[in-house]
Amino acid sequence: MPHFAYKEGHALPGISAAALPQVDSEVWTAIDAERLRQVQSIELIAAENVVSRAVLEAQGSVLTNKYAEGYPGRRYYASCGNVDVVEDLATERARLLFDCSYANVQPHSGNQANQAVFLALLEPEDKILGLDLKSGGHLSHGAAFNVSGRWFQAVSYGVHPLTHLVDMDQVAQITRRERPRLIIAGASAYSRALDFARFRAIADEVGAYLMADIAHVAGLVAGGAYPSPVPHAHVTTLSTHATLRGPRGGMILCNDQTLARKINAAVFPGLQGAALMHTVAAKAVALGEALQPGFGPYAHAVVANARALCGRLAEGGLLVVSGGTDCHLGVIDLRPWGLAGNAAEGALEAVGITVNRNVVPGDEVKSSVTSGIRLGSAACTSRGMGEDEFREIGDMILAMLGGVRSGAMDSRTERSIREGIFDLTRRFKLPY
Question: For FRET with 372, which of 74, 91, 287, 389 sits at 20 to 30 Å CA-CA?
């Protein structure tokens, strides 16, 4: 049980000044085990990255203690001057980084940022159009089991069956037929650049709003390595983790002050209570880091490394969906090798390579199995790995999945893979 220090004459426990290992060894043991896993693993989950020590310190700061309902200068609680400074810094840095006039940094996640936009711009039963899940879309873009699919009439567009690229002619045809109130341009497992200008032209044709969800590629947009939707979309949502290399949270951007007022009201008091000020502080730090000269080269390296990895896997006989990538991720179709996504995920995890199973276009198996895996380059790029290392990682994946495919993994090969992972993680260290 946690230990609490009691002051003489007080019936209630006071706050312990002891560190976490002494206060709660069970929680500390799990956290430290996770730290070691991250240190010793090749992290290829596209939604994950590693943050700086400064971001960690901000998120673990005394701002955890402060309740700050409302917005800077208009809080519903006293003594918010210091957290107002922090939120203003985060907002100012977001506007500068993404070249927009408005930013809301309070959403607790990218999903809640999307929900806030829905609340601001839509009425129940309005029609929305988003990318189909099996084509790489996100559940918050109209999936039947998500609030976006339960509260609104959700229709979807897909990818071309041969190229696996978003079929913009199909988007236009569906839009003219269905006349959605909101079109969503964004994805969670689609590796090619989206044509935001064409999306906006299609939306304008029927008087629809365009929301760009750049949850995955926000850091690439910030670093100039991926097209920005901000000049085209009515509203842009994003996650502050993944390629932006910040804490887990969300943001909303736009250039229309009328929409900005609606979004502010939707975030608070419409959807959320008080902002998580420790997380807002960590967002401010990450945004400040992304404004530094070194972030652009990092973003371009993320894309180059993803291309190196996908290229090596294709050379080795694996099928890369859409034939390559324009961002930080690649989706691998395992059906030609007769492998299931969950089996590949488990085999790679066993040797210290972390990926996630993922549906692929035309997938006919359930989502807990899938026919593919998704790979991302952001985290290992943050460790300093380059194209040569990513090609080496590709060789390890090919060797491991080749063994699974044959049903007879050679112990010498597995040992070689583990030694390769140890060498990479030893040479490219984490700061904690």
Answer: 389
